Amino acid sequence: MVWAWAPQRRKLSTMRLRTRALAHNRSMNEKSGAELNALGRFLTIADIAEILNVSISQAYALVRTCELPAIKVGGGGHWRVERVVLESYIEAKYEESRRRSLWIQSDFGNVSEITLG
């Protein structure tokens, strides 16, 4: 008798993204208590990608470039981002967008060069 062994495919952490429909459309404060407890204090790259509605590689790039502060944990060096850090990042991006919009709308937004005389 010949035994045929085929390795089982592991489900990646990204597979659970499909089970939470439209989670990226809700702020973290709008999530139910059960969802927040399920996420815990630290978020994975997959969680970040889902919340920001970007790809996992884009979320990883934010961490890798230090635009989004993160820590490595565990023997495999898995990246984790604190929930409050992500909320601060999102608020900072809104503020940046608001300031950029105000600058464009201002009279000085069209000034190409300022000369001191």
Please, could you describe this protein's structure?
The protein is mainly alpha-helical and 117 residues long. It has a domain at 26-106: Multidrug-efflux Transporter Regulator, Chain: A, Domain 2. It has helices at residues 33-39, 45-52, 56-64, 83-105, and strands at residues 42-43, 71-73, 78-82. The longest helix is centred in the last third of the chain and has 23 residues, at 83-105. It is elongated and about 55 Å long.
Per DSSP, what share of the residues sits in E-state strands of 2 or more residues?
5-15%
Shape: elongated
Percent of residues in helical segments? Answer: 40-55%
For the record, the CATH class of the domain at 26-106 is Mainly Alpha
Encode the helix/strand succession as letters: HEHHEEH
Q: What structural category arises from helix and sheet content?
A: mainly alpha
Terminal CA distance reads 94 Å
CATH architecture of the domain at 26-106: Orthogonal Bundle
| Largest β-sheet summary | 3 strands, antiparallel
- Rg, Å, rounded: 21 Å
Mean pLDDT across residues: 76
| Spatial strand sequence of the major β-sheet | 1-3-2
Beta strands, count: 3
Total helical elements: 4
Which fold does the CATH topology of the domain at 26-106 refer to? Multidrug-efflux Transporter Regulator, Chain: A, Domain 2
- Pick out the low-confidence regions: 14-25
